[in-house]
Amino acid sequence: MEEKVSVWTSNRFWRRSATWVTGVASVLLIFLTFDSMAQMKMGSAKDIEKKIDRRIPSPVVINYTIDYKLDPYRGHEIPIIGGEMRRPEGGIKSAYEKKEKFFGRDDYSEKEARELIHKGKLTIQAKNCMDCHTLLGNGAYYAPDLTKAWLDPTWETLAPAYNGKEYAIAAFLQDPPKMAMHERKMPNLGITKEEAKAVVAYLKFMSAIDTNGFPRNFGKIKGAVDARK
Ligand code: HEC
């Protein structure tokens, strides 16, 4: 009588399985790579004109108001650029209409805005802000997450005294110990006025990136220790 061999001990079975799993995973990874690349592509000013949502919007978003609101359709907070409108399938989305002045202007061209944000990025890299902060999931948690720092309600309260929220953040960056808001202080990194403006542009732009609600519940953290009081 022939001996019954269990499939689980068959070399042929495992060799075939390994080949199939590797093959299917490779195809899936190639698909996901292209999908991610499409999601990470920066939008243009045209997209904003046509109200097309992009995860990474055009740099011209610095001309618009930026908010962070719970979208019941997606179940987490999303950036709301230029006011909100209803999403046809339910929930809310950006209206791309409401503008606001950013350092006195709301008409930065795509090129101007891109250059300003790029300078901000270079400053952030040169000064190693990630040693203490986190940007889009990269960095440290010694200091607050900067991904949505533009939306920190603290700036709203300081805005009137500085003639606008962007000026308040720029003033802080140029001399953080003077405007310390927490027990743990940020050192003075010798950031110039021009660099500060560029960094604020970068922070505003970054807050408009759709990060699937990360970090969660930003702007709702009430009752945190405030060293100014
Ligand atoms: C040595 C650590 C350290 C480095 C480096 C550092 N920071 Fe900070 N930063 C802090 C700390 C601590 C705070 C909180 C200070 C406070 O609130 O008074 C802070 C606060 C901030 C805030 C306010 C955050 C909020 O949510 O309102 C911003 C904006 C900021 N830093 C930007 C930067 C930028 C941009 C750089 C790089 C140019 C930088 N920081 C580099 C430690 C650091």
Mean pLDDT: 92
Structural class: alpha+beta
Terminal Cα separation, in Å?
89 Å
Our count of helices gives: 6
CATH class of the largest domain: Mainly Alpha
SSE topology string? HHEEEEHEEHHH
Q: What radius of gyration results from the CA coordinates?
A: 23 Å
**Small molecules in complex:** heme C
* Count of the domains: 2
Model regions low in confidence, pLDDT < 50 over at least 5 residues: 223-229
CATH topology of the largest domain: Cytochrome Bc1 Complex, Chain D, domain 2
Outline the biggest β-sheet: 2 strands, antiparallel
For the largest beta sheet, what order do the strands appear in spatially? 1-2
In one word, what is the shape? elongated
Task: Please provide a brief summary of the model.
With 229 residues, this protein is an alpha+beta fold.
Plain-language structure description:
By secondary structure, this protein is an alpha+beta fold. It folds into 2 domains: 7-40; 45-207, Orthogonal Bundle (Cytochrome Bc1 Complex, Chain D, domain 2). The protein has 6 helices and 6 strands, in the order ααββββαββααα. The strands form 3 sheets. Strands 1-2 form a two-stranded antiparallel sheet. Mean pLDDT is 92; it is low at 223-229.
